[in-house]
Amino acid sequence: xxxxxxxxxxxxxxxxxxxxxxxxxxxxxxxxxxxxxxxxxxxxxxxxxxxxxxxxxxxxxxxxxxxxxxxxxxxxxxxxxxxxxxxxxxxxxxxxxxxxxxxxxxxxxxxxx
Length: 113
Fold this sequence. Notes:
50% strand, mainly beta, 0% helix, globular
């Protein structure tokens, strides 16, 4: 059974930092691209960052220079380090095994002024 379990969300003041984790129980984790997505209230889900099996990363323009995606294949975990958080980063953040149907349940990130 495939599971993606996010953790690390919470309430933080603007300018603060959080690190999200996504623990994956999925076969061939190290050969899979992984992604972080977010959905704010009343908005469509959007891609935040992706990382390929070789470690190549891509970011949404809105988070470039502030967020960093990384992975630990031994732990089957993908991370999202979020710095300089803004009010507009408030959303439910979910991870996904790219090009599959598998998503995590999401973790809430709330940024306050």
